[in-house]
Design goal:
Blueprint (H helix, E strand, L loop, with lengths): L2 E6 L10 E4 L13 E6 L2 E11 L12 E4 L5 H13 L4 H6 L10 E4 L2 E4 L8 E7 L11 H10 L5 E2 H8 L3 H9 L3 E7 L19 H12 L5 E6 L5 H14 L3 E5 L7 H11 L3 E4 L5 H12 L5 E4 L11 E7 L16 H12 L2 E6 L4 H8 L3 E6 L10 E6 H6 L8 H12 L3 E5 L9 E3 L16 E3 L4 E3 L6 E3 L12 E3 L4 H11 L5 E4 L9 H11 L3 E5 L12 E6 L3 H4 L6 H15 L8 E6 L5 H7 L3 H14 L7 E9 L2 H18 L5 E13 L2 E10 L5 H10 L8 E6 L6
Parallel strand pairs: 11-16, 11-17, 12-14, 12-15, 13-14, 15-16, 18-28, 19-26, 19-27, 25-26, 27-28
Antiparallel strand pairs: 1-2, 1-4, 3-4, 3-5, 6-7, 8-9, 8-10, 20-24, 21-22, 22-23, 29-31, 29-32, 30-31
The structure holds adenosine-5'-diphosphate and zinc ion (2 copies).
Length: 740
């Protein structure tokens, strides 16, 4: 007897386990792990994926597999990884299995000559029609002879695509059709490898490595199967060159590699560096490709034609053969955590994957996450520090301005005197400046303009979030709530105000300050359109002298030698996020900004405006000494048992009905409270920082557990008991990176 364990691919159905089906003799050869099958589920037919094959089953009355729809698309190790993701992140197994399927897969079947098959993959956009002359055919023009002649002339130097013909001659479809019917030309579909976003860029191979680079490469070489190595190196320290060499060594051994970069860094420049080294062995998986193009890239990896996959988070599941190395650049980036189910973190999933495949994991960052640094201390990760820029270059001068002091001196503008002066200087010297507003739309807080005090929670050391409705201050960790005070609790000033200016306002103030200096705005509004991000940056690049005003995303576009001034309008916005990681985020952002300014010939200058000038995240950047931040932050996390010294789960309840949301989140908190062991904490329910989205109310419950405990399992069991009324949605975020 052969039994297939099948995960049903039913959209919006939260099926958390696999079902057993009998495999008829006729299908025994084909029904293997990873293939898609057609089965009966209830009274309907459904597509499923085989995750295991067994020779016995405890389930009685099994139904048979009706048909095998597609050859295997994943193996046992991948299926195990999906199972782990579903368990660890309390997500439906079918959602986890989808991570492994080719892009564009839909659980639909069609009937063809050989029976039922899976609906074919999306038509490749990289497929094109090619026209060529049929040798030896005697051409006898009939009507419309000159058009036909023109087409044939265009084909004399060799085959030409329809696209090129049309570009040269205008619409030629009917003419080509006539020629084809006459047997004069042949039209065929050609699949051409096309990667529209990739510009080839020559990247020299550096023969002489720096000391740090040699150490890094050696650490990777000696790392055993399943091991992890962190390259802790400033921007420009040559980490990418190390990745390239380590990959080359794996390829020489016949193995493959996966390179993960944050979505926003998946630029033509980045990909170009890898392509210039590895050419056609590269497959790029990214969301800007059409479904067909993405399928092509996936297929090139699955067939073994390509052996280096580059992509964002989900490229971790690329079907490479014999995985030897996973590289994760900018490992601290939050985009490595998926924000919809399954809410997995690619770094943790990568650790599992390399262990299972006997491969290695290389993490790189100038500002590693607290989690990764912790794993270096426990010995789980090897750490190599690259503390020098290979090309030399001086670090910019960083000046911190105390905005509370500015206010006391009578300056009520959003620019300090120093920043205003520098902006005028930029205009006079015909240079460029970047103004950064590290603003996150959802969380607002109160800040005293005179003393800089921000009301915070005594228990959690995080800022209280201001909720306009009812003028409430809420702690999003423990749920403490209070009425917002009318004056500053610390100094009594009445200037206790809601904080934060938008890019629009900053742009307007720049124009008022320096009339005539062009201002380019870059934020979620101005870059919403496809390619908007690149457009804005290109606009800025073309201007001779200009100011770029934007949110976090501009930090990535700071690689301009001609930028001589970077102003951080307010470091406080991220410092006061209702989140344990607010200090870490601020440090990472400021460090990135400081690391990128002044890369050209003229020295760079960074001005950080803040009401909290002695916060370790700020002093560490100002004094170019990261340990100032890491040491103090680590002590705080440890004292409050926050990650990496504890685990968290965030359960978010949403509905149109506030009554339902309150009731249901109350049930969630009670179900959890009754189950969790003594040292755990259940906090809430409270309104989420983003208390309302698209007319849905959002409340959340937070669970804090010691490290190494079965937090996901506990949450799963507790939630099983909670009945969700119609229209109420529960989302579980294990190890959340933010509490939005
Ligand atoms: P990172 O990835 O750490 O930011 P890169 O690998 O991009 O650093 O290196 C920064 C610059 O230095 C690149 O232009 C790269 O080509 C160059 N570079 C890297 N390694 C060397 C080397 N050993 N000698 C000279 N230049 C190098
Ligand atoms: Zn005050
Ligand atoms: Zn609190």
């Amino acid at each position: 007897m052969t039994v297939a364990r099948v995960v049903l691919d039913i959209p919006s159905k939260e099926l958390s386990s696999a079902f057993d089906y009998d495999v008829p003799d006729s299908l025994r050869e084909d029904a293997v792990i990873g293939c898609a099958v057609l089965v009966e589920f209830g009274s309907r037919r459904a597509v499923g994926h085989v995750v295991a094959v067994a020779d016995s089953s405890e389930v009685a009355n099994r139904k048979p597999v009706i048909a095998v729809l597609a050859p295997p698309r994943f193996d046992e190790v991948a299926a195990d990884l999906a199972r782990w993701i579903a368990q660890e992140y309390v997500a439906p197994l079918s959602d986890a299995i989808r991570l492994l399927l080719p892009p564009g897969s839909v659980p639909e079947v069609v009937k063809n000559d050989s029976g039922w098959v899976l609906k074919p993959p999306p038509v490749s956009a990289a497929e094109e029609r090619v026209v060529e002359v049929v040798e030896g055919h005697h051409f006898a023009p009939g009507t419309n002879a000159h058009r036909q002649r023109a087409v044939l002339d265009a084909l004399t130097t060799g085959p030409v695509t329809m696209g090129e013909l049309t570009a040269a001659l205008g619409s030629v479809a009917s003419t080509v059709k006539r020629l084809e019917q006459a047997g004069a030309v042949r039209v065929s579909l050609r699949r051409r490898f096309r990667d529209p976003d990739v510009r080839e860029r020559s990247a020299p191979r550096h023969e002489r490595l720096s000391g740090g680079q040699r150490d890094a490469l050696e650490a990777i070489r000696v790392a055993g199967p399943g091991a992890c190595v962190l390259l802790h190196g400033v921007t420009g320290s040559g980490k990418t060159e190390v990745y390239l060499r380590a990959i080359a060594e794996e390829l020489a051994r016949g193995r493959s590699a996966i390179v993960l970069v944050p979505e926003i860094s998946l630029t033509p420049q980045t990909v170009g560096r890898f392509r210039s080294r590895f050419g056609e062995q590269i497959a790029v998986l990214h969301s800007r490709l059409s479904a067909g193009e993405r399928f092509d890239q996936w297929d090139r990896l699955a067939s073994g034609q390509a052996r280096v996959a580059i992509g964002a988070r989900s490229a971790l599941f690329a079907p490479v053969h014999d995985l030897g190395l996973v590289v994760m650049d900018e490992e601290h980036e939050t985009s490595y955590k998926q924000s919809s189910a399954p809410r997995y973190h690619a770094r943790d999933a990568a650790r599992r994957l390399v262990a299972a495949r006997g491969a290695k994991l290389v993490l790189g960052s100038a500002t590693p996450s607290m989690e990764t640094l912790h794993s270096c201390r426990t010995g789980e990760t090897a750490c190599v520090v690259l503390d020098e820029r290979v090309g030399g270059g001086t670090l910019p001068e960083v000046e911190v301005v105390d905005m509370g002091q500015e206010f006391l001196n009578g300056n009520r503008s959003i620019f300090s005197d120093g920043l205003a002066r520098e902006l005028r200087g930029v205009a006079e010297r015909n240079e460029k400046a970047v103004l950064l507003l590290n603003r996150r739309g959802f969380a607002s807080f109160l800040l005293c303009r005179e003393c800089g005090h921000v009301p915070g929670c005594d228990r959690c050391s995080t800022s209280l979030t201001f909720h306009e409705s009812g003028s409430l201050l809420v702690c999003h960790h423990c749920g403490a709530r209070s009425i917002a005070p009318p004056a500053c609790p610390q100094c009594g000033s009445p200037y206790l105000r809601r904080f934060g200016a938008g890019t629009q306002r900053v742009a307007a103030e720049v124009s008022a300050l320096v009339p005539g200096l062009p201002v380019v705005r870059m934020d979620a509004d101005t870059t919403a359109a496809k390619g908007g991000h690149e457009h804005r940056l290109a606009e800025f690049e073309l201007l001779e002298s200009a100011v770029l005003v934007g949110t976090q995303m501009v930090a990535k576009g700071l690689d301009y030698p001609e930028v001589t001034l970077v102003g951080v309008v307010s470091a406080d916005t991220t410092l006061h996020l209702p989140d344990v990681r607010s200090g870490e985020r601020t440090f990472q952002l400021l460090e990135q900004v400081a690391g990128r300014a002044g890369r050209g010939e003229r020295p760079g200058r960074v001005i950080i405006q803040t009401y909290w000038p002695d916060h370790p995240a700020i002093t560490a950047v100002a004094r170019h000494d990261p340990s100032l931040f890491y040491t103090s932050e680590d002590a705080d996390r440890s004292a409050l048992t926050f990650p990496p010294y504890g685990r968290m789960a965030n359960i978010i309840v949403t509905s149109h009905s506030l009554v339902d949301v309150k009731a249901c989140s109350g049930h969630v908190a009670r179900a959890l409270g009754e189950r969790v062991p003594e040292r755990w904490e259940v906090l809430g329910p409270v309104p989420a920082p983003l208390a309302r989205v698209k007319d849905r109310h959002r409340w959340h419950v937070l669970v804090k557990a010691p490290p190494g405990t079965a937090l996901p399992e506990m949450v799963r069991r507790a939630l099983k008991e909670v009945k969700t009324p119609r229209g109420v949605t529960l989302a579980v975020d294990i190890d959340p990176l933010d509490l939005a």
